[in-house]
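>> received
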Amino acid sequence: MSDSSTSVTTQPGHDAAGEHAVGGALRALRVSKGWSLEEVAGRIKFAPRQIAALEEERWADLPKGISLRGLIRSYARLLGADPETIIASLEPHMRGGAPARLATQSGLQSPRGTLPTEEERSSSSWGWLIVILLVIAAAVAYGVWQGWLPTHWLPGWLSRSGH
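>> returned
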C-alpha cells in the first residue's frame, strides 16, 4: 500500500497516457497527508489556484515552461513522489503549446515589450545630453552676469559687450 503513495502515473480508471491520472493522484496524495491547498502553497511558494489547476489539469491556467516544471517538481517532492516520472508523463502538455507559440512569435530574440529599443535608448541619451548642456550653459551665463568669471576666460565678443 505504501508503494501506491509514490506511484502517481498508474491508477486504474484513467487514460493510458496518464494525462488525467497525474492530477488526481497528486490530489489523492495531498489529501492522504491531510494538507489543504493553502498549506501546500505555503510550503512550495506557488499560489493555491495554480496547485488546484495542476490537480484539475487545467493547462491554460498554469504557468508555462520552466515555471511549470518547477511547480511540478516542488509539489512532487513535497508529496514524496518522483518528480521526473511525473514530468515525463506530462511532457506532451509541457512541450505542446507554449514553447512552439513562443518560438513563432518572437524567434530567438528577447521580448521587445520589456526593454527599450535601440532608437528609444539613443533618443533618450540625446535628450539627457541636451538637458545637461542647457544646465551648464545656464550656470555659465549666471556666472557671467554675476561677474564671478574672470574676463580673460570669456571670449572677446562676450567681454566687450558687457562693458
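>> Confidence is low (pLDDT under 50) at residues 1-19, 97-112.
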